Amino acid sequence: MPIQEQMRKGTTTVILLNLLAEVDRPMYGYEIIQELEARSQGAFRFREGLIYPRLHEMEQDGLLRSEWQGEEGERRRKFYTITAEGRRRLAEELQDWRSFARTVNRLLGAESKP
Amino acid sequence: MSDIEGTLARIRSQLKLDSETEQELLAEIRSHLEEAVAQARAEGLDEAEALAQVSARFGVEEVVGRSLQAAHAGWGTADAVMAAALPVLCALILRWLAFAPDGTAVGWAQLLSRPAFWLVALAGLLLPVVKFGRWRYALAGWAVFWALTVILVVSPALRW
Known about the structure:
The structure holds 2 protein chains of 2 kinds.
Chain A: H1 3-23, E1 27-28, H2 29-39, H3 51-60, E2 64-69, E3 77-82, H4 84-108
Antiparallel strand pairs in A: 1-3, 2-3
Helix pairs in contact in A: 1-4
Chain B: H1 2-12, H2 19-42, H3 47-58, H4 61-72, H5 77-98, H6 108-112, H7 115-132, H8 135-154
């Protein structure tokens, strides 16, 4: 499995939390996928169907809450919003990620030197 | 749109959840697929090409179905304990409301006139709705609450 694929799998939760925190508005699954692909300039291409189990697990963990929107006769969509617990988790995961990235960069000699 | 129905059927084949949950999951997936096909059509693909593209990006339906099943199957231990304990706890509080320390019952009429009784009954109904988001679970818990209540009130052997 390519390293980018492995890293994507391990970071999906924090990426989803970060997106929803940044946009600071409810988003639905398809919209989330489109936005992530656009932001990564196509580098992050999800198996789209697999985003839903992840979103549902995050909702069950209290990181997201969801709400159906749309009137009868038009397409109804399930919108996800980050919760306060989700923001707390995001802050922790970002801190862990930065620490991990610094360590890996140091080990690989990729860290910029003064 | 027949391929969308096929995709949904293959996902459904992996699900063993209550029908309410399954319908909600499939409605969300249907909305995704229909929007993806509409966008592909808007970009100039014909119906067959759009369906093929959407299917390829969506992933293997059986894998998605199994992942959804895993995400929704069963409660956590804390949820299961709460679901089991709540009606029992409510009935025990009710018993405290309904009987004097010497075991004298207040009677149904007096019991039903007490605001505290209805507070407990409403809490027993609404807490599971808030916690689990499913009226079905709440009503099942409420049925257990009422059954325990009746048993406690009508059975002298249980008036400790």
